[in-house]
Prior knowledge:
The complex is a heterodimer of chains A (263) and B (369).
Chain A: E1 2-11, E2 14-24, E3 29-33, H1 40-48, E4 54-59, E5 62-63, H2 69-75, E6 76-79, H3 91-96, H4 114-121, H5 137-151, E7 156-157, E8 160-161, E9 163-167, H6 175-190, E10 194-198, H7 202-208, E11 211-216, E12 219-224, H8 226-229, H9 232-239
Parallel strand pairs in A: 3-10, 3-11, 6-9, 9-10
Antiparallel strand pairs in A: 1-2, 1-4, 4-5, 7-8, 11-12
Helix pairs in contact in A: 4-5
Chain B: H1 2-15, H2 25-48, H3 56-65, H4 75-110, H5 122-136, H6 142-148, H7 152-172, E1 173-174, E2 177-178, H8 180-204, H9 207-218, H10 226-242, H11 247-253, H12 257-262, H13 267-289, H14 295-307, H15 311-336, H16 344-362
Antiparallel strand pairs in B: 1-2
Helix pairs in contact in B: 2-4, 2-15, 4-10, 4-13, 4-14, 4-15, 5-7, 5-8, 5-9, 5-13, 7-8, 7-13, 10-13, 11-15, 14-15
Amino acid sequence: MIEARGVSVSMGRRRIVAGxxxxxxxxxxxxxxxxxxxxxxxxxxALTGELxxxxxxxxxxxxxxxxxxxxAAGLRAVxxxxxxxxxxxxxxxxxxxxxxxxxxxxxxxxxxxxPERALARVDLDGFAGRFYQELSGGEQQxxxxxxxxxxxxxxxxxxxxxxxxxDEPVSSLDIRHQLAVMDIxxxxxxxxxxxxxxxxxxxLTAMYADQVAVMHRGRLTAYGxxxxxxxxxxLERVFxxxxxxxxxxxxxxxxFLPQSASx
Amino acid sequence: MANQSIAGAGVAGLFGGRVQDGDxxxxxxxxxxxLVVVLAAAMLFSLTSGASDASAFAVIRDWIFGAAPGxxxxxxxxxxxxxxxxxRVLMGVLVGAALAVSxxxxxxxxxxxxxxxGLIGISAGAGLGAVSVIVLGATALAPLxxxxxxxxxxxxxxxxxxxxxxxxxxxxxRQGRTSxxxxxxxGIALAALAMALTGVLVYMADDRQLRDLTFWQLGSxxxxxxxxxxxxxxxxxAALAATPFLxxxxxxxxxxxxxxxxxxxxxxxxxxxAIVSVSAAVGAAVAVxxxxxxxxxxxxxxxxxxxxxxxxxxxxxxxxxxAALLLLADALCRTVxxxxxxxxxxVTAAVGGPFFLWILLRKRGIVDL
Lengths: 263, 369
């Protein structure tokens, strides 16, 4: 379990995250939603240990701040919003960086084939020989996801659940790959791991999340199952606009929901 | 890309291994083997060529088989080869490897192919340290020189280089992000400052000290002695020996500091180890050979084109190629205007300057000013 108690993050004098209590359980996809600047990414960065914060963060019962980078890397992998490179690495070389910690949890002898399998998982079969810098933004995002998957290939290792922390994993993806990536996240959780994902798409959140954490002005204002949290009153207040959950557009206007699509 | 996989397949056939798409490890290993051969050839060439007609082969034969009476190389040839050429060759190897590997490490650390110890003021800082010892060794720094003996000079160069690197990193890095424009500009300012202080010291120097100092300005391997190798050699070897342990971390660092940390790399320790070993290697190299520029940019860049940016192969390959190139440049310096000599810094700058501009023009995006 990832547990945050009273987590606050300040940058300069501005308090970006204020007193957040948050949990993400293994076996579940926990989505963090909220308007721009509400502190979603900052909260995620505190959970990864990237940003110093007040309060306490525990990973499977152990204090994150007391863990060495290598120990934390064996328990969770992190997908950043976007990653740019200074040098011309190939896709395989990038994905293989996920093997660096040596705790993939893959069976012996499987390790060498892992980059290929991870690439196939994110629908990038045959991309291993391409140069990362020559790929589109969405393809780069999926290469990074393949790297992250390599790092914690087994969702449970030595009895301990492991976690994927994803910062807007579908932001630059087309609909097919949005679904594919969210399927990967859900599958990771079904097999005993935990997933925390910052999401902007409320429909995908409703479709895939087991728990939804709603951030608003640096505070966690609602937390619970999608049906309980994604309601008119909460969303109108948080996103500061009038909206109706589950209302159809006037007849004849085309609209589309991910719920009606599949890969 | 098609080219690349065909080349890869050919190489794989040679080694009997299986090459996967996008895996340049086999090619990198082949290049490493090739570079060992090139370096050996360069050393031999360097040992056998020079202003004098002394036969190095005769001397080498004597080393291996013992001097046969009557057939032995004459004493003059032995002195020229053993006490003049051999230390110079070894120093060329040490300095070339130190500069090229330091360049590759700095580039990994700053995540930019234009970082180079000479360009961003590390060499200038090291030079300032060394010149301080030469000029003030009898007066202000006398206790230091008494205490450390011949180690005072390389140590002062190391401290100078370390200070320059730490200041530069402090200025150019904010919250884990290194601004390249800030790095280059701050490096230029630091180098200018160090040069100004060096200038003051040169101004204070007497005639004998001035002779010692002249070679700092341009860089040269001409002053090579066994004693200098004894002091600088261990420092450079120790610093270079630390770099293979940095390779994996520097690879991860290409994704950014935060991501490297998430992958389990102790980023702060990596950065400090990199900074200390670069400062030590560059400090020792500058202490014995002055400011030889551009080796640290040209060598890693050429190698990245050939074997890719994977530091596990890039760092050792840079060491080998840097050593070989500096030996060839030095051989050129010794023979072009023989019996006089060209300072080697002129040659490396004449090749490296245009090369640097070429990288800059090809990839303007790198500097994002």
